[in-house]
Design goal:
The chain is an alpha+beta fold. The chain is built from 7 helices and 16 strands. It has 2 domains: about 5-150, Fructose-1,6-Bisphosphatase, subunit A, domain 1 (Fructose-1,6-Bisphosphatase, Chain A, domain 1); about 160-270, 3-Layer(aba) Sandwich (D-Maltodextrin-Binding Protein, domain 2), CATH 3.40.190. The chain has helices at about 5-30, 50-65, 100-105, 175-190, 200-210, 225-235, 265-270; strands at about 40-45, 45-50, 70-75, 90-100, 110-120, 120-130, 135-140, 145, 150, 165, 195, 215-220, 225, 240-245, 255, 255-260. The strands form 4 sheets. Strands 3-4-5-6-7-8-9 form a 7-stranded mixed β-sheet, with helices on both faces.
């Protein structure tokens, strides 16, 4: 087995491991679904629950057991230590529960998101939505799958007929900035007539990858690297496009991306 074959085999092993781990974390979360307890208040409307912490603990424990030399960037335990990943050799980027508020209030749109990055680029990405029993998985150069079956982005090429998922503006920004963001979001509605906001970036990206929606717009200014690390690989491997549109005012780990089926990319990029 030559070097390239060895590397591909190692990534397949990492993907299999990540899939099993995401399902295991999802099973743990289901036991707490709808009756979790808030443990960490990060801001006026941002918090972590006992379920977030338990899921992250499980995931980190398993990664350290099987890949002790790798770096880990996880939402809760590394929140205050987040830094650029470009100089790390191998880093696991974890959102143990994306859509915490949905989960806490008993809404079904939440998931586990785990990505393996090498030098800042995702090479394995898994998003698992336990309520829907949907396991999305991608490996660089090997395509994207849902429950083992190949998936592809949609073929919609008319923006007026598209379905777009969005992270809407949030009030945590300054009043003036919030007004600008809200105006931009409202303007997009004049062009895109069908917009849905599910409040789980990782799951939204997975839905675009499978062709259930045609694009993803981020107006929130609050998306983090762990929200999109797995989902952006799903999009690329399913044949779509992803653009980093992070604004100068956003600092790591805040990010902002546009993800589409590719056919709508240029037109939607103008809206951001």
């Amino acid at each position: 087995m030559n070097l390239i074959e060895t590397q591909k085999f190692a990534l397949r092993q990492a993907q299999d491991f990540t899939e099993r781990l995401a399902v295991k974390a999802g099973a743990l979360l289901l036991k707490k679904f709808g009756h979790s307890k808030i443990k960490v208040q990060k801001g006026p409307s941002d918090f972590a629950t006992d379920a977030d912490l338990a899921s992250e603990k499980l995931i980190i424990k398993e990664i350290k057991k099987h890949f002790p030399e790798d770096e880990i960037l996880a939402e809760e335990s590394n929140y205050h230590e987040a830094r650029s990943l470009k100089h790390e050799t191998r880093t696991w980027v974890i959102d143990p529960l994306d859509g915490t508020k949905n989960f806490h209030f008993g809404l079904p749109n939440w998931c586990v998101s785990i990505a393996l990055q090498i030098k800042g680029k995702s090479v394995v990405g898994v998003v698992y939505a336990p309520v829907a029993k949907q396991l999305f998985s991608a490996r660089k150069g090997a395509g994207a799958k849902l429950n083992g079956q190949k998936i592809h982005v949609s073929t919609q090429n008319k923006i007026e007929h598209s379905l777009i998922l969005a992270e809407i503006p949030r009030r945590h920004t300054s009043g003036q900035r919030f007004a600008r963001d809200l105006a931009a979001f409202t303007k997009s509605l004049n062009k895109v007539q069908r917009v849905r906001a599910f409040a789980s970036a990782a799951y939204d990206l997975a839905l675009v990858a499978r062709g259930a929606a045609d694009g993803y717009l981020d107006f929130s200014r609050n998306t983090k690297i762990w929200d999109i690390a797995a989902g952006e690989l799903l999009i690329r491997e399913a044949g779509g496009r992803v653009s980093d549109v992070t604004l100068p005012t956003l600092k790591f780990p805040n990010v902002s991306i546009l993800a589409t089926n590719g056919k709508l990319h240029g037109e939607l990029l103008k809206l951001l």
